[in-house]
Amino acid sequence: MGFLKSFFREVRYYPSAIVGLLIIFGLVVLATYAVIAIPYHRAIDLWRGSGNIWYRNPKNAPPKWVNYFRDKKLPETIDLDSRKQGVAQRKEKPLGKGKQIELTFHFNYTADEFPHDMVIYFYPTYKAKPPFVTGEWITPDGRKIRLGNFAVTNGFSFWLNQDKKLRSRIQRIFEREGIPAQIALLLDPDSLPKDPNVAVEKVARPLKGKYTIKLKFLTFEPDSDVNAEYIAYGGVYGLAGTDHLRRDLMVGLLWGAPVALAFGLISALVIGIATMIIAAVGVWYGGIVDDLIQRITEINMVLPFLPILIMVGIFVSRSLWMIMLVTIALSIFGAGIKSYRAMFLQLRESPYIEAAQAYGAGDTRIIFLYLIPRILPMLIPGFISAVPSFVFLEASLAVLGIGDPVLPTWGKIIQDAQSNAALYKGLYYWILEPSVLLMVTGLGFALLGFALDRIFNPRLRQE
Amino acid sequence: MNTQKSTVVDVTARSTEKPLLSVRNLKVWYELKRFGFLHAGYVKAVDNVSFDLPRGEAIAVVGESGCGKSSLMKAILGLVHPHDGEILFEGKNIWEGGREAMRAYRMQVGYVQQDPYGALPPFMTIKRILEEPLILAGVKDKKKRLERIIRSLEEVKVSPPEDFLNKYPHMLSGGQQQRVVIARALIRDPKMLIADEPVSMLDASVRVEILKLLDEVQKERNLSVIYITHDLSTVRYFSERIFVMYAGKLIEKASTHEILHNPKHPYTLALLNAISDPLAENATKLRDIPPGEPPSLVSPPPGCRFHPRCEKAIKGLCEVKEPRHVQVGERHTVACWLYDEERE
User: Fold this and answer.
1) Domain membership flag for residue A87
2) How many CA atoms lie within 13 A of B193 on its CB side?
3) What is the mean pLDDT of residues B221-232?
4) Domain count of chain A?
5) pLDDT of A1
6) Contact: B109, A352; criterion CB under 8 Å
7) pTM, entire model
8) Which residues of chain A does B118 touch, with a Cβ-Cβ cutoff of 8 Å?
9) pLDDT digits (tens, 9 = 90+) for A242-267
10) What is the share, in percent, of chain B residues with pLDDT greater than 90?
């Protein structure tokens, strides 16, 4: 493998190759991390959102780092679960058959914007008679707002903004209609606009400081118990943000890397190598073999690639591996055969091939040890440059709606974003994140490919 | 056309006992096709060639470009399937006995090509290049292979061999490259060597050395050599006999001395006249060379193929009947009506 040695010796002189290699190395690290940190089945479960795993996440929240670029900081999600140690203060005293339980949550609100939504999830245990709760909201300046009182059945969740009684109570307090609960409860009363025609959301500021939620429960059975979880869904989430199904986009972005690399690399290499071998075999054996390969190639080249893929996607399977298989099958007998054939035809007549025949090298030996190694260095840059086109193909197919139904991929994130009008809603992060990753992948392979072309193709070398 | 099978032994051979290689009525015809499948005739590159090559004899085949020398050589190497005729090596037809027989035959034949750079795979090191024939010969032991590689490099005077093992062909000079080609041809200790214009691409200064090297090797190993060339000035270095080829046929076979001093065929005379002469006083002299060009091999002229260019052509005979080989001296035959006593 003399050319590998010369490759590493020469690659230093090409900064673009080093940058490309670094990008590819970074992608490989990312992909490896994704596969190890989130195993395949876990990734599929997470992406499908089975078991309601994402209920604690806000919907359509941009990543946390957008706050660095904002004057008014968006709130992070506040999640207070009394089942966790030290989150809530708990007081209990027996009362009749059951007991009286008081849960007190404290949190410090520092953001400049209001949360998107507020909810209290209840986790009661009882046999026949559910516990009863009375909730109270205490603001930093000491105002007390009653949240409501109701029986806590299994699986009950209290969406503060959807409770009619709370809304009418808010209307009475602020003497205005239609202030959402998550705003009203955090509102600085001084920032309330005097003019009733001005929308509250645009002018009002949250009151920063320590808030308290007091939940007083009454249970009616000896073994009955209750826990509660308060969530204020924030405006930012994680490093990558969330989508319309509250999924952490990080899972999709991370898993998109191994999928994209696998699809791109496997397709490019299998197609490149298979095409080269077929072209070499056709040229070497000639006659009927060559004719057959040429005719198959010509027929294959006029077949419409995309419609066939879409048809396979609709009628057979949308699985990534099926799409890859069809892509490879349709591309092997492609234009590559023709150009490789031209190179091999010239090579077939070389004296060194004649010499090899004369000293008894067999057909297979000549094809694999004499014909292919001669043009391999010229083709390797092409293989590398072809990788991004297959990565993009996978993404384009996903955008067209024939992406893998279960695997998270960059293309599918873009498709989700597009079908949920991400750009119209101003959720740029949703489209930009996968797009930037796609572009960086393309850039990495292109930079390396171009540099390799210069190294292996002496004609392009700058002397 | 004369297609009769001749079993006559080659009278010009050094010894007629058990020749190493016998070529009998060999025809190498390439089929021409119209529209890719319709038969449209043959290119008769080699037509009815017969000769014997005894062990240890060096012969030269001379003729101008396109006369069929290379096709003859390819047929002898088993690279093209002859249209008709036989190539017998140690009495066995090389095309009978299948792949294994052909492999076994190829193990005993060395091949030196014209263009030394093209003859060496540019992506292999010298060591690898010389290893290939040994691997194909079934030499499994790496140490043994290396020993033989070094020995054969020493034999062709590429020294010190260790310095060259890991070099690529393009790092060597033309002469060194040709020495490596010769080493590759000799590494399996063949009985026969086929050299196709081995010096025509080399500098004049290197030519003599390479020819001397071939001569030494031939004598040392008692090799049979077929030396193919268009240049009569180089043949005298080591060939014992010369075959003159014209338009696919051998027209004169004789010892080197006879050809150079007693040429018979008008074409041989013309060839000898065309040898370049470095004498300054002859610089302005125009030589008599036959007019015209070599004939088409698809439809060669009837009768003697040289007759359209021949000054001494006999009207009514040369363009009608093909001349046969007649003996005109000791170990000297010529296919020309001028010397055939039975021409009437």
Assistant:
1) yes
2) 30
3) 88
4) 2
5) 53
6) no
7) 0.82
8) 350-352
9) 998 899 999 999 999 999 999 999 99
10) 24
Distance CA B285, CA B110 (A): 42
pLDDT per residue over A323-370, tens digit each? 999 999 999 999 889 999 999 999 998 999 999 999 988 899 999 999
Structure tokens at A147: 């949240």
| B113: chain A residues, CB-CB within 8 Å | 351, 354-355
Q: What are all long-range contacts of B267-276, with beta carbons under 8 Å and residues at least 24 apart?
A: B267/B306, B267/B309, B267/B310, B268/B244, B268/B334, B271/B62, B271/B63, B271/B64, B271/B232, B271/B244, B272/B232, B274/B232, B275/B232, B275/B233, B276/B233
What's the confidence (pLDDT) of residue A459?
A: 59
> In the structure, what pLDDT confidence band is assigned to residue A19 with cuts at 50, 70 and 90?
very high
Residue B1 has pLDDT above 70, yes or no: no
Predicted confidence at residue A462, as pLDDT, reads 47
The tokens for B190 are 């063949």
CATH for B21-108+190-339 (2.160.10.10, 3.20.20.70, 3.30.70.100, 3.40.50.300): 3.40.50.300
Contact B107 A358 (CB under 8 A): no
Question: If contacts are CB pairs under 8 Å, which of residues 331-360 in chain A contact chain B?
Answer: 350-352, 354-360
CA–CA distance, A349 with A40 (Å, rounded to integer)? 50
Which token pair is A10?
């020469």
Q: Which tens digit of pLDDT belongs to each residue from A29-52?
A: 999 999 999 999 988 888 888 778
CA A314/CA A311 separation, integer angstroms: 5
Which of these, A317, A274, A316, A307, lies nearest to A293 by C-alpha position?
A274
Residue range of the domain that includes A198 = 70-233
Q: Where are the domains of chain B?
A: 21-108+190-339
Chain B positions touching A352 (Cβ under 8 A) are 118-122
* Cβ pairs A/B, distance under 8 A: 56
Q: Do A359 and B184 touch (CB under 8 A)?
A: yes
Compute the nearest-CA separation of B14 from chain A (Å): 27
Are residue A294 and residue A252 in the same domain, yes or no?
yes
Q: How far is CA A24 from the centre of its chain?
A: 19
A374 touches chain B (CB under 8 A): yes
